[in-house]
Amino acid sequence: MNSERPASSKASRKEVKRPKATMTIQQKVELLDMVREKKNFAAVARHYGINKSTVRYIQKNEAQIRSSASLSFREAAKNVSRVRNKYIVRMESALALWIKDCMKKCIPLDGNIIREKARSLYKQFSTNEGAEPQPETSRHIKDFTASRG
Asked: Which pLDDT belongs to residue 144?
C-alpha cells in the first residue's frame, strides 16, 4: 500500500521554454514593406514566424519604426530592436565619434567628462530640432539624465 501519488505528467516532463524572439528595426522595416505590397497579415506572420497581432502592432507603429530606421546610421545601431527617442540616438552617435576623436588625440577622458558631453549634445540636438514628433511612445520630451553605468 503505497500512499504516494505518482507525479503529474506536467511535473515529470521537462518543457523547454521558448526563447523570446525580438526583431531588429531592419526586419520590422522589411515586414512593413511586405504589408505595403498588399500581402495579408497571415502570410507575413507565417513568413516571420510571429502572430498576426504582432504584425498589426508593428504596422500601427510604422511611422515611429521608419523614422528610427532612418536615424540609425551607426553599425552598432543596426541591431536595435526597440524604437527610441531620436535625440538620444543622435547624441549617442555623436558622442561615440567624439570619444574616438579624443582617443586619437590622446586626450584623457573619465566618466564625468563623458556624461557632461552627453548632456550638452542632447541639449543641442533637442533645441535645434524644435517640436518635431518623437518616435518614442510618450507625448512629451523626458529630461535626459546621463547614466553612471
From this structure: 66
Q: What is the CATH number of domain 21-84?
A: 1.10.10.10
Domain boundaries, the chain: 21-84, 85-130
Helix (H, G, I), strand (E, B) or coil at 130: coil
Residue 12 has pLDDT above 70, yes or no: no
First to last CA, the chain: 61
CA 70/CA 94 separation, integer angstroms: 16
> In this predicted model, which residue has the larger pLDDT, 16 or 47?
47
If we measure between CA atoms, which residue out of 10, 12, 31 comes closest to residue 21?
A: 31
Q: What is the pLDDT of residue 105?
A: 92
Identify which of 2-11, 34-43, 137-146 has the greatest average pLDDT: 34-43
Kindly give, in sequence order, each residue whose CB lies less than 8 Å from that of residue 88, ignoring residues fewer than 6 positions away.
122, 144
Query: CB-hemisphere CA count at 13 Å for 91?
Result: 24
DSSP string, 93-124: HHHHHHHHHHHHTT----HHHHHHHHHHHHHH
Which pTM does this prediction carry? Answer: 0.47
